[in-house]
């Protein structure tokens, strides 16, 4: 059956082939963007809940922990968490919406939005990984220097922080390769097909 459809498609006039290709690309892209929207909505919600939990915990530790470096680390994590919450809100707000616009404009908005998020994800080492890891290291260092934690325990904590940083870094590389690149490629192809009309 599929072979017959391919033969019919190949024997049809070029205009019909382009229309079919465009329809197929539109449906495929819409499905892909819908699944990405759902995933992003869930991801942003989880991250916001994490921030809502982290901020009070580290605010309390500023008051409770006696070590100055641990207080600085806690304050650093709180400040980063508040900044990160504002970034999540901006990402959520900037998501393209279907309004009174041409489909080509809609595609270009998605292309811009995904391109910005891809760039942001590509630089996550500097804004998502290093700031909280630095805060956690300062927090643990305060305990170690204040003789509340032995060197072996301190080294284990640092090792865990560094392993988490490496895992998150490669996870974001995987996200770029499997989430952003294929969708941007589909958008580019559809923009090209629509430009041929």
Helix fraction, binned, reads over 70%
The whole-number mean of residue pLDDT values reads: 86
* Share of β-strand residues: under 5%
Biggest sheet, in brief? Answer: none
Any idea how many domains?
A: 1
Instruction: Spell the H/E element sequence.
Output: HHHHHH
Count of discrete alpha- or pi-helical segments spanning 4 or more residues: 6
Ends: how far apart?
29 Å
Count of β-strands: 0
Radius of gyration: 24 Å
Q: What global shape is seen?
A: elongated
Which structural category fits the helices and strands?
mainly alpha
Instruction: Detail the poorly predicted runs.
Output: 13-18
Report on the structure:
The protein is mostly helical. It has one domain. Helices cover 89% and strands 0% of the residues. It has 6 helices and no strands. It has helices spanning 2-11, 14-64, 68-94, 103-122, 124-145, 151-195. α2 packs antiparallel against α6 (151-195), α3 (68-94) runs antiparallel to α5 (124-145) and α4 runs antiparallel to α6 (151-195).
Summarize the SSE layout with pairings.
Layout: H1 2-11, H2 14-64, H3 68-94, H4 103-122, H5 124-145, H6 151-195
Helix pairs in contact: 2-3, 2-6, 3-5, 4-6, 5-6
In short:
This protein has 197 residues and is mainly alpha-helical. The protein contains six helices and no strands.
Based on the model shown, name its key terms.
mainly alpha; elongated; 0% strand; 197 residues
């Amino acid at each position: 059956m599929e072979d017959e459809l391919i033969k019919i498609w190949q024997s049809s006039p070029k205009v019909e082939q382009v229309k079919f290709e465009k329809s197929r690309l539109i449906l495929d892209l819409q499905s892909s963007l819908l699944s990405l929207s759902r995933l992003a909505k869930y991801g942003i919600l989880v991250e916001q809940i994490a921030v809502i939990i982290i901020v009070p915990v580290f605010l309390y530790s500023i008051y409770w922990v006696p070590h100055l470096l641990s207080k600085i680390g806690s304050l650093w994590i709180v400040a980063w968490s508040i900044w990160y919450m504002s970034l999540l809100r901006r990402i959520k707000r900037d998501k393209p919406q279907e309004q009174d616009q041409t489909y080509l404009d809609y595609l270009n908005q998605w292309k811009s939005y995904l391109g910005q998020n891809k760039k942001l994800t590509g630089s996550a080492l500097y804004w998502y990984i290093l700031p909280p890891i630095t805060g956690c290291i300062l927090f643990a260092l305060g305990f170690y220097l204040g003789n509340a934690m032995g060197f072996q325990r301190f080294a284990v904590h640092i090792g865990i922080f560094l392993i988490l940083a490496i895992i998150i870094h490669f996870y974001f590389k995987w996200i770029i390769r499997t989430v952003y690149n294929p969708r941007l490629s589909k958008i580019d192809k559809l923009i090209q097909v629509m430009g041929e009309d």
